[in-house]
Structure formats: structure tokens, C-alpha cells
């Protein structure tokens, strides 16, 4: 099961490098750069690429938020900052479970209202692909995806948005792990709403678990509660770090045993920590 984490990291690096190459050099650099752009869900929704949207919908239904840990460039950027965090003694603190709040739903609602109202500033600050475009605009105003310049708002606005985006992701990652992905990102929240119906879940085998706490301490999404052997799969980004650190191999990525028979989006009772 640990090999799945290695494969996930390989895909994340591949898509991240391709995304950076596309943003700073252009689509001509390599075919993978174009693939990386076309694989982005936000862009697909904006250009009504039905095939890509349906593909990701199916993948999410089966595996959960795998997009967040493999294809999303902001997710990989966050992981890079988290690796830096682990090398700074003042910041290298163990992660711990944090209970979910209503904040992600509220932000998702605000995001949807802004889209409908044509207020693009909010989406351009919190959407994963646009965050990367902001950073590219700040470093290289002539980048192919210089978002704010394309909107006619000038180089100064682009540089400011890029700095804000970079500092926001860096701060969240260094201080709170992947909390931006689990609480702020509207795309992550939307995918998390489907968690009850995911075919595969991260689950803890209570018979094998020795409650050592290593999975919780290494969970960047703070969605594992060791004392009750609970995993909040709505926030789990499928990084598979918990599988790698479990000394008893008590954590499995397996078919969801609690998958409800209720129709999609109907409230069903689920085990709580």
C-alpha cells in the first residue's frame, strides 16, 4: 500500500513542473504542459470542457479528493512549504486533529455568489489555477497567463495579487499544513461534499491499530483522530502519508464500508469521532 504514496508523489511533481513550465514558458515547451493545463478542473468548468469535468467527477466519486494531492499545483506548492516547515525547528510541530467547521461551506457560497455576480476578484484570489497565475504574473508580468493584466487592471495589480497569493499559501502551509485546501479552496470543499459516496475511503483497522498517534501527527489535513480511530474523509486529500508512517499497517485505502444507500446529497448518519 505504501507504493501508492510514491506513485502519487511522482504524479504531483510531474504535473507541478508541467504547470510551472506552461505558465512561465508557454505551451510549446512540452506536450505535458498542455496536458497539465487541460487537467485543471476550474479551467475545464470555465471553458465547458464536459469531458474533463465528467472524468474528474467519476475519479472523485471513486477515489475521493485525489485531485488535491496530484494535479492541483497549489497543493504541491503547499507540500513544498510543509517540507520546509519540517526543517525549521520553530515551526516543526506535529499535526493534530482539528474539528471541521462551517467556514468552508460559507466560503463556497460566497465564491458561488461572486461568480454569479461577475465579481472576479474573489475567485481569482482563492482558485488554485488562478493562484498560480497570480504568482506567475508577479514574477514575470509577460507570462502567458498574466491574469490581472489580461483583465486590463495593470501590472501593479498583478504583482500585488501574486504577492498576496504567494504569502497566503506560504503562511497557511508553514503554520497550518493543508488547511487552505480543506477550509478555503472552493474546489476542495465542493469535492469534499461527495465524500460519503466515494467508493474508496481511508480507514483505520481498529483491531490492528495500537493508537500510537503517528498517523495523526503526520496528517497535513488534520483530519485523523487517533483516539477514536476516525478519519474525516471529506477533508482527506489522499496524500497517503498516513499509510507510510503506520507501523502496524492498520490504515487502508479500501472500499468504503459506510457508504450510504441514500441518494446523493441526502443527509445520512455517519460515524463521528
Give a quick precis of the structure:
The chain is 55% helix and 5% strand. With 273 residues, the chain is mainly α.
Walk me through the structure.
The structure is a single chain. The chain has a domain at 3-192. α6 (73-85) crosses α11 (154-176). Helix content is 55%, strand content 5%. It is mostly helical and 273 residues long. A hairpin with a 4-residue loop joins β2 and β3 (230-231). Strands 1-4 form a two-stranded antiparallel ribbon. It has 15 helices and four strands.
Distinctive features:
two-stranded antiparallel ribbon, 4 strands, 5% strand
Strand content: 5-15%
Oligomer: single chain
Report the average pLDDT across residues: 85
Main sheet characteristics: 2 strands, antiparallel
What best-fitting shape do the alpha-carbon axes yield?
A: globular
The helix-strand sequence is: HHHHHHHHHHHHHEHEEHE
As a whole number of angstroms, the C-alpha radius of gyration is 19 Å
Spatial ordering of strands, largest sheet? 1-4
Give the termini distance in whole angstroms. Answer: 25 Å
Number of helices: 15
Secondary structure class reads: mainly alpha
Regions with pLDDT < 50 over 5+ consecutive residues? 261-269
Question: Count the strands?
Answer: 4
Share of helix, binned: 40-55%
Write the layout of secondary structure elements.
Blueprint: H1 3-24, H2 31-38, H3 41-46, H4 50-63, H5 66-70, H6 73-85, H7 103-117, H8 121-126, H9 128-139, H10 147-150, H11 154-176, H12 179-184, H13 186-192, E1 200-204, H14 214-217, E2 224-225, E3 230-231, H15 241-245, E4 251-255
Antiparallel strand pairs: 1-4, 2-3
Helix pairs in contact: 1-2, 6-11, 7-13, 9-11
Amino acid at each position: 500500500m505504501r507504493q501508492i504514496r510514491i506513485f502519487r508523489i511522482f504524479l504531483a511533481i510531474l504535473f507541478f513542473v508541467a504547470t510551472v513550465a506552461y505558465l512561465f514558458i508557454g505551451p510549446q515547451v512540452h506536450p505535458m504542459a498542455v496536458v497539465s493545463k487541460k487537467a485543471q478542473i476550474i479551467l475545464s468548468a470555465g471553458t465547458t470542457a464536459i469531458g474533463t469535468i465528467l472524468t474528474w467527477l467519476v475519479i472523485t466519486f471513486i477515489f475521493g479528493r485525489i485531485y488535491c494531492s496530484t494535479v492541483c499545483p497549489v497543493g504541491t506548492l503547499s507540500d513544498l512549504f510543509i517540507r520546509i516547515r519540517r526543517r525549521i525547528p520553530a515551526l516543526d510541530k506535529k499535526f493534530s486533529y482539528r474539528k471541521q467547521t462551517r467556514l468552508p461551506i460559507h466560503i463556497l457560497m460566497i465564491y458561488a455568489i461572486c461568480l454569479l455576480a461577475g465579481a472576479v476578484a474573489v475567485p481569482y484570489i482563492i482558485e488554485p489555477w488562478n493562484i498560480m497565475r497570480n504568482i506567475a504574473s508577479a514574477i514575470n508580468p509577460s507570462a502567458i497567463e498574466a491574469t490581472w493584466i489580461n483583465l486590463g487592471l495593470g501590472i501593479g495589480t498583478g504583482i500585488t495579487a501574486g504577492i498576496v497569493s504567494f504569502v497566503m499559501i506560504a503562511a497557511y502551509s508553514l503554520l497550518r499544513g493543508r488547511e487552505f485546501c480543506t477550509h478555503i479552496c472552493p474546489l476542495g470543499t465542493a469535492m469534499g461534499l461527495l465524500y460519503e459516496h466515494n467508493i474508496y475511503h481511508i480507514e483505520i483497522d481498529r483491531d490492528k491499530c495500537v493508537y500510537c498517534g503517528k498517523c495523526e501527527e503526520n496528517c497535513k489535513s488534520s483530519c485523523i483522530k487517533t483516539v477514536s480511530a476516525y478519519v474525516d474523509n471529506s477533508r482527506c486529500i489522499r496524500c497517503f502519508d498516513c499509510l507510510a508512517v503506520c507501523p502496524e499497517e492498520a490504515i487502508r485505502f479500501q472500499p468504503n464500508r459506510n457508504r450510504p444507500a441514500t441518494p446523493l446529497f441526502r443527509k445520512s448518519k455517519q460515524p463521528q469521532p
